[in-house]
């Protein structure tokens, strides 16, 4: 599957959103460049970019991760809360896709930010969860990379016998296994399971030689004399593209269509801000990640943020692009023993749930 370079057309719904947003910014200056704390205890909100719907009273448990994409912008600006003022929305922090899988399994989440590899794993045996993909937050490029400590190591072939840390079940894990398989190094290196917040400590204690990881840990390792030799853009070139997706349980999505429609419009606004107003979006991301705005702006370069119209197109929800990518991920996970077997026929093809995307782009 090819990874498109995003164009920036806007549909009727998003033109309305942009107009409303411009008015809100002109009146309130809602993205505050000096804001340094979470909007739960600081005025970080802005007006809903479309007409709010107070009739929506859904209770939604939403998992987020420290990934610089539209989810962080939406969370920081409290757009869901502004657009659905009577909904009960809870934001829950997750450290990795593995945590998301466990939370889905215990029925403690409704919607979650999750990588393409873990969500495919969740839908496959032995877990076989009824999860649907409802949004592509980003296509991962250089934002997930293999960082190596030894300055003499220049290629993956130089890493035989070394120890590599990576969060198991994540998109980074999938990219790493793809690269190792291509190089013929499967079994020739030691791959250990470490959460993102444990990778830096293991690096500093010389317990690992390398890590395939995302931001902000990626930048922290580079500051600790690391250097990159591969990225997820490289693994995509090997036929293994990875994404940060948003998934939800089948029951929640089918039972709450109005919530999903408004949620989709808000997500589309988050993507628009990232591509058309990156400085404002970076301010929100910086607040949520606890970094400087300039650092947050640099992080955006490692991702592609598909627009609403692109998501509805043939590369993603409107065709076979996304289903094929999920099915290909599942086949690889089975080969690696990460899942017991492939899911029943049709599961991966039916995982993309683009009902709301199709509706709001009409």
Task: Output the keywords.
D-Maltodextrin-Binding Protein, domain 2, 17 helices, five-stranded mixed sheet, 2 domains, disordered N terminus, 362 residues, single chain, 16% strand
Question: How is this structure best summarized?
Answer:
This protein has 362 residues and is of the alpha/beta class. Helices cover 44% and strands 16% of the residues.
What features would you describe in this structure?
The protein has 362 residues and is of the alpha/beta class. It has two domains: 247 residues, D-Maltodextrin-Binding Protein, domain 2 (3-Layer(aba) Sandwich); 94 residues, Periplasmic binding protein-like II (D-Maltodextrin-Binding Protein, domain 2). 44% of the residues lie in helices and 16% in strands. It has 17 helices and eleven strands. The N terminus is likely disordered.
Give the topology, please.
Elements: H1 12-28, E1 59-64, H2 70-77, H3 79-83, E2 88-93, H4 97-105, E3 111-115, H5 116-123, E4 131-140, E5 144-148, E6 163-166, H6 171-183, E7 190-193, H7 196-204, E8 210-214, H8 217-223, E9 227-231, H9 232-237, E10 243-249, H10 250-255, H11 257-276, H12 278-289, H13 293-299, E11 303-304, H14 308-312, H15 321-335, H16 347-350, H17 355-361
Helix pairs in contact: 2-11, 2-12, 4-5, 5-15, 11-12, 11-17, 12-13
